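All the exercises in this workshop are built on plain-text protein records. An example says more than a description, so a record of this kind follows:
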Amino acid sequence: MIIVHLYYTGENGNARKFAEEMEKSGTAGKIRAEKGNIRYEYFFPMKEPETVLLIDAWESQEAIDAHHASSMMKTITDLREKYDLHMKAERFVSEDMPSTDKGFIRQ
């Protein structure tokens, strides 16, 4: 699994407005329905009110590439421009949790 953290930052609440429009327009739901998408969810960092964190997880690089080639990317790009957002990205490849860490997870 490939996990991407996208930090959208703007001014005057624009990052939150962007996330709200992605949800209300159905675009986020369409992305969640794409083949290979595992997670597509927005979070709001407590100490950064002008930032929204998107956690985006995919089964493979091929699934990400297909998403990037989809028509939804134009919608997303247009909304980023509309809200004048800047981005930072982090990428992770998941691995099984070591047994030494499992003792710290309360289920």
